[in-house]
Amino acid sequence: MNKKLIIIIAAVVLLLVVVGVVVVVFVLGGEPKEPVIVYSEYQLDEAYSNLADEGGTKIIKYQVVIEYTDDAILTELESNKTKIVNNIDELMRASLSEDLMKPNGKERMRQRIRDMVIEVLESDEEIISNIYIAPFIIQG
C-alpha cells in the first residue's frame, strides 16, 4: 500500500508541475505584445492656390490627406475642416515656388501643415501621424 500511495503522490506532483509549466509558458510567458496601431485617413478636397512668387502668376494644385491613429479625432477634424483648409491655403499662398521645388520643399510643407493641424485640433504627433500631399503640381 505504501508503494501505491507514493506512486499516486508522485503522479499528482508531476501533474501539478506540468500544469504549472503550461500556465507559465502559454499564459504568463512570452513578451508583452505592443498594441496594434490602426492608421486612418481624412482626405480634404483638391485645391488650388496662388503662390507668393512675384507677379502672382504661379499656381499650385494639391490635395491634402491627414493620417491619424485615434478615431476620436475624426469629429474634431470634421468640425474644424474649414479652418484647416483655410490655414493650408494661407500656407500655400505664403510660399514661393522655388522653395517648394527644392528637394525637401514638399517635406517641409507637409511638416508645416502637420504642425498647424496639431495646433488647431489641440492634438499631438502620435494622433496626427502624417500628412500626404498628392497631387502637388505647380503651374505658371
From TrEMBL:
The chain crosses the membrane at residues 6-28. It is found in: Cell membrane. Keywords: Cell membrane, Cell projection, Chemotaxis, Cilium, Flagellar rotation, Flagellum, Membrane, Transmembrane, Transmembrane helix. The keyword Lipid metabolism does not apply. It is a single-pass membrane protein. InterPro entries: FliL (IPR005503). Belongs to the FliL family. Controls the rotational direction of flagella during chemotaxis. This is Flagellar protein FliL.
